[in-house]
């Protein structure tokens, strides 16, 4: 997309093409009402997802966002669209003009500004039709990209999940203050904050993001897909050490993780990063597989990330469930871990090994060699105590696990016996077989 695109050949068409106002009509007067049944806002209101409950509720939510984060450019954009939708053209124009002044490279803001100006001109049908008919293929693609971004921002920026909780995130350990969820279908990144033991995490921020150019879960190097799974931020790379296309910084993630490698997936270099200088944002599907934010949003996000600790769960669609369902799944997984710990302490090797799946693997081990090693080690034990702490629990996205019910656990393990003591952080993968959670992978 050329930087000058929205400023040059059009101050118009965006909301017209989105259906917010009809061709030849205006947002007020003229006898042309809003085509409500064709607007993204109406589709949102008719969906199973929740908004703030009323138009005033939406304005209140956006004003709150702006009071807490004055650089929340998306909130300003959505506020101007809502004002436009309600026929308050002067207020809408004031809001969008202020946004353009603060974010002069925000192409979508220019497109909305143009539509507001055009709506103030009566009898604009001929001009609009002419513009639409004479767009070049490149301009049509550019316009489509901006409209796709507008739709994603409208839905993602206004949807509220009420009291529902993300099924993929069941617990954050004491050392993990925040986690990130990425919903590829809505092009939305959520920041969740730990609220304490036995208290559900809370969404504190959310952002529009761009993901891979191709649909689906990443399978191989160069397929231009964003991977789905449970990942962890591994490091921080500042702007000075990056090519310009990565914007103001990058957080690499551990793709391919242990399960990805087991499944034969290839590729690397999957990062959270900013946007190329000269562009405010990118279309919804425009990366080579990374998760991309605007530079302004990335600068806000980076304060919530701790390399080595922050988990990033990427799913085609985040599952928002009732608290009762969330608590039930959480309780079941914690019970499985506690049963494993107790049976390990018991010195009954058969009871301990009953927690391991037939397809279990670890570095250098399969289930048979793991069992042989544990039986040998047990011969020298008179007692052993295992303390598990700092436990984080994640349900693996179903599509990424080939439809299996899987979970990832990150924990601290303190092991003490008559002849050995160790403390380490572990990552454990479990799958659900015959109604029971069993360990599929265990590693430090």
Description:
The radius of gyration is 25 Å and the shape is elongated. It is built from 14 helices and 20 strands. The protein has a seven-stranded mixed sheet with strand order 2-17-18-19-20-15-16. The chain has three domains: 154 residues, no CATH class; 156 residues, L,D-transpeptidase catalytic domain-like (Beta Barrel); 123 residues, Roll (Nuclear Transport Factor 2, Chain: A), CATH 3.10.450.50. It is α+β, with helices and mostly antiparallel strands and 444 residues long. A hairpin with a 4-residue loop joins strand 3 and strand 4. The protein starts with a helix and ends with a strand.
Q: Can you give keywords for this protein?
A:
alpha+beta, L,D-transpeptidase catalytic domain-like, Nuclear Transport Factor 2, Chain: A, 7-stranded mixed sheet, elongated, disordered N terminus
Share of helix, binned: 25-40%
The oligomeric state of the chains shown is single chain
Contiguous helical run count: 14
What is the CATH superfamily label of the largest domain? L,D-transpeptidase catalytic domain-like
Structural class: alpha+beta
**Largest sheet geometry:** 7 strands, mixed
Measured between the Cα atoms of the first and last residue, the distance is 44 Å
Query: What number is the mean pLDDT?
Result: 86
Strand order across the biggest sheet?
A: 2-17-18-19-20-15-16
Tell me briefly what this model is.
The chain is of the alpha+beta class.
